[in-house]
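queue> pop job 88
queue> type: inverse folding (structure -> sequence)
queue> payload:
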């Protein structure tokens, strides 16, 4: 018989609710109460402040948990605290099988299927994405980078509607490289910008997570951290594009270390984390009171 757990979701996006219910429902018998024992909440509202039960914070954004408000967290950045589980966006979306190589790709065949040099998908331009914008300009001056997003668009083309993931990877598959710069540099903050190109044997040019090489094979992508300047990086990208044996090395490399999904994809580890939470008998942080003289 499955353990019974009193649960609710407040200030929580539907896709995240579906993810956690799909993960946990086979193992727990949930009742959804107005006064639950456990509450999931996110960063998109403040109604969770009305609850004084055990609170679990989750976000797909780059925010750390506020331990004055929550008891546990499952977040997209690395937090050195046993109360927090690491759940980056690429693991939330799944598809690790697309990065496990069952055979070694043929670099000649792969390159022949990619008529275009490099792509960029950029939704906006402001001070937060200055690194991405600057490198785009540096590389684009050397060899044209096709930008098809709302910002920096130099093609007149926009991705058509449809399955967001499939439309994106079908477009990425036409390019040998993809400019994959995150919005922010933060440990663990690694998004679909890195993995989506790897799904279709497109080489990501990556900047962002300083711990990215702990989770992905650095031989499968070009990392900005390995270069002293954007100019040096741009020159290297052109060198890879013009050197078949060097290009082949990236294409043959497995995205995962030892060709095995990294620990962020481990659903059993996540289940163990929630088992610890649901067995907890600690006093919720929301019930602790501060008194001032």
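queue> result:
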């Amino acid at each position: 018989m499955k353990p019974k757990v009193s649960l609710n979701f407040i200030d929580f996006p539907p896709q995240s609710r579906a993810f956690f219910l799909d993960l946990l429902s086979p193992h727990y018998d949930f009742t959804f109460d107005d006064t639950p024992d456990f509450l999931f909440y996110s960063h998109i509202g403040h109604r969770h402040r009305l609850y004084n039960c055990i609170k679990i914070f989750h976000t797909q954004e780059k925010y750390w948990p506020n331990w004055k408000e929550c008891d546990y967290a499952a977040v997209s950045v690395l937090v050195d605290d046993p109360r927090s589980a690491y759940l980056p966006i690429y693991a939330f979306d799944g598809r690790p099988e697309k990065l496990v190589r069952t055979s070694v790709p043929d670099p000649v065949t792969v390159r022949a299927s990619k008529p275009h040099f490099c792509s960029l998908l950029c939704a906006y331009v402001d001070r937060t994405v200055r690194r991405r914008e600057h490198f785009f300009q540096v590389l684009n001056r050397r060899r044209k980078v096709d930008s098809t997003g709302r910002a920096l668009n130099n093609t007149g083309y926009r991705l058509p509607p449809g399955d967001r993931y499939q439309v994106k990877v079908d477009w990425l598959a036409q390019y040998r490289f993809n400019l994959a710069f995150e919005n922010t540099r933060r440990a663990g903050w690694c998004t679909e910008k890195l993995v989506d190109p790897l799904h279709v044997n497109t080489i990501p040019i990556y900047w962002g997570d300083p711990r990215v090489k702990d989770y992905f094979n650095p031989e499968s992508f070009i990392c900005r951290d390995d270069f002293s300047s954007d100019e040096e990086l741009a020159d290297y990208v052109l060198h890879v594009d013009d050197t078949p044996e060097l290009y082949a090395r990236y294409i043959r490399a497995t995205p995962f270390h030892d060709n095995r999904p990294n620990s962020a994809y481990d659903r059993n580890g996540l289940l163990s984390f929630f088992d610890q939470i649901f067995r907890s008998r600690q006093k919720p942080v929301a019930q602790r009171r501060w008194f001032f003289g």
